[in-house]
Amino acid sequence: LQLVESGGGLVQPGGSLRLSCAASGSTDSINAMGWYRLAPGNQRELVAAITNDGAHTTYDASAKGRFTISRDNAKNTIDLQMNNLKPEDTAVYYCYADSGTNSDRKNSWGQGTQVTVSS
Fold first, then answer.
1. Residue among 83, 108, 81, 113 at smallest CA distance from 23
2. What is the C-alpha separation between 44 and 60, in angstroms, rounded?
């Protein structure tokens, strides 16, 4: 399973960005996908996740009300719409996919995309 992210960049506080992640390979085995972020000096944190059927989403408290995760199963993509961005959202954002079952279950990761919120 391969994941490729796009959409990062530099934005001013209060601005918006949309991140996308495209999955290829064993996409039928995906259980859920989402986004983590890692900022310097911080631990990796889950930003948002969505189940493969799109029925369930979860958000970090800091993302609720500002970020929206969505998926397009026909295209094997997920998007993260980020609005009202704050400087503390600055981080490298990594797409992940939870796939497989039982002993074959694993997480796959994208290469990361930088999001910088600064005036």
1. 108
2. 12
User: Using one digit for the tens of pLDDT, what is the confidence trace for 57-95?
Assistant: 999 999 999 999 999 989 999 999 999 999 999 999 999
Q: For 1-119, list the strands marked E by DSSP.
A: 2-6, 9-11, 17-24, 30-38, 45-51, 57-59, 67-72, 77-82, 91-99, 106-109, 113-117
Structure tokens at 45: 């944190």
Helix (H, G, I), strand (E, B) or coil at 39: coil
97 pairs with which residues across the strands? 33, 108
At residue 21, does pLDDT exceed 90? Answer: yes
Across-strand partners of 33? 50, 97
List residues bridging with 9 in a β-sheet.
115
CA distance 68 to 59: 9
Map residue 37 onto helix, strand or coil. strand
User: Which pLDDT value is given to residue 76?
Assistant: 93
- Report the distance separating Cα 99 and Cα 18, nearest Å: 24
